[in-house]
């Protein structure tokens, strides 16, 4: 077997635990894999479980399927909350957030260079049946998607602390860490893919009793919020990675009733009403104190940003399903 990107297997113990819980011997697991068109001997499984052999992505996913392991479950210790934070504060597409590594942070970590996407690709047999998946880096959606995005100061502090914790974890697991290590890793120390973000976000919403929100809704919230704050069209277009503002305006920006009233009163020289739907920027600029967790801060942002985003749901839910520009 070929080692996956030369990295040591870090999830052998998890595979062994689930295999034994299911009552499978290594020979049985080997036969099950063979039925899926993936040859793997019991000896190779033994070496995987003892962290002496690494896996290709589609092999790992096949094992997870057989042993009922949730490949991208939301648990303590995973980085998915930080990933959602980035989509909310920086406007990343899901595949862009999944594709970020530490080399993406430049100029003293004050900017992101968005130049990679991490995606899931199905593997087919000769009968055109899906027998597995390969997860790998790919090009971005359009030429304009390649861009430089400022990092929110508080998010920068969160990421730098996360970086140090990730280094310590890799050292403990005897894994090689580098600037090309993905920023956001699941519990198997593998990068996320867009297809597996919906469930963690749903669990996050349920945990904090939040309103309905999709991963792409975080990007919509980003665009609407900045527009509501008066950001110029050309700047917002560039931050979103769009070729023209018409795309940003058509699919991402929702003009709330409160904003309409404010603009109307401003035009007539009337006293504007207080906009309760506008995000309180003092919360976004709130320092990341030891007493305040990243989850708590992000929950506050979700609750406020959803006041804007949720109003777009009825009219744009079909657009979100069919358009991911």
Chart the SSEs and their pairings.
Layout: H1 12-22, H2 26-35, H3 42-49, H4 57-66, H5 80-90, H6 94-98, E1 105-106, E2 111-114, E3 117-124, E4 130-138, E5 147-150, H7 153-172, H8 198-208, H9 215-228, H10 233-240, H11 245-251, H12 257-267, H13 281-284, H14 294-309, H15 313-322
Antiparallel strand pairs: 1-2, 2-5, 3-4
Helix pairs in contact: 2-3, 5-9, 5-14, 9-14
Count of DSSP strands? 5
Strands of the widest sheet, in order across it, are 1-2-5
Going by helix content, strand content and strand pairing, the class is: mainly alpha
Amino- and carboxy-terminal Cα gap: 38 Å
Shape: elongated
Give the tally of structural domains: 3
Biggest sheet, in brief? 3 strands, antiparallel
What does the average pLDDT come to?
79
Helix content: 40-55%
Beta-strand content? 5-15%
H/E element order: HHHHHHEEEEEHHHHHHHHH
Question: Rg from C-alpha positions?
Answer: 22 Å
List the total number of helices. 15
* Unreliable parts: 1-9, 73-77, 281-292, 308-325
């Amino acid at each position: 077997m070929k080692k996956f990107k030369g990295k040591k297997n870090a999830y052998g113990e998890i595979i062994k635990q689930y295999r034994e819980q299911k009552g499978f011997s290594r020979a049985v697991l080997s036969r099950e894999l063979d039925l899926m068109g993936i040859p793997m001997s019991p000896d190779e499984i033994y070496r995987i479980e003892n962290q002496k052999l690494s896996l290709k992505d589609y092999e790992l996913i096949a094992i997870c399927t057989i042993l009922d392991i949730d490949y991208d479950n939301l648990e303590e210790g995973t980085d998915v909350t930080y990933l959602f934070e980035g989509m909310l504060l920086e406007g990343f597409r899901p595949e862009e957030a999944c594709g970020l590594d530490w080399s993406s942070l430049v100029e003293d970590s004050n900017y992101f260079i968005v130049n990679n996407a991490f995606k899931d690709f199905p593997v087919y047999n000769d009968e055109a049946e899906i027998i597995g998946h390969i997860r790998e880096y790919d090009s971005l959606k359009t030429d304009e998607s390649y861009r430089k995005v400022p990092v929110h100061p508080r998010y920068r502090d969160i990421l730098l602390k996360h970086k140090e914790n990730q280094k310590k974890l890799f050292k403990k697991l005897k894994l090689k860490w580098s600037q090309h290590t993905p920023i956001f890793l699941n519990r198997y120390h593998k990068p996320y893919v867009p297809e597996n973000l919906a469930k963690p976000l749903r669990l996050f919403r349920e945990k904090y009793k939040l309103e309905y929100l999709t991963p792409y809704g975080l990007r919509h919230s980003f665009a609407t919020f900045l527009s509501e704050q008066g950001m110029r069209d050309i700047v917002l277009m560039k931050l979103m990675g769009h070729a023209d503002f018409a795309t940003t305006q058509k699919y991402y920006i929702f003009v709330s009733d409160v904003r309409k009233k404010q603009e109307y009163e401003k035009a007539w020289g009337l006293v504007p009403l207080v906009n309760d739907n506008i995000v309180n920027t003092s919360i976004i600029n709130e320092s990341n104190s030891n007493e305040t967790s990243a989850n708590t801060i992000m929950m506050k942002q979700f609750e406020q940003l959803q006041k804007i985003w949720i109003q777009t749901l009825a009219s744009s839910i079909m657009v979100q399903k069919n358009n991911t520009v």
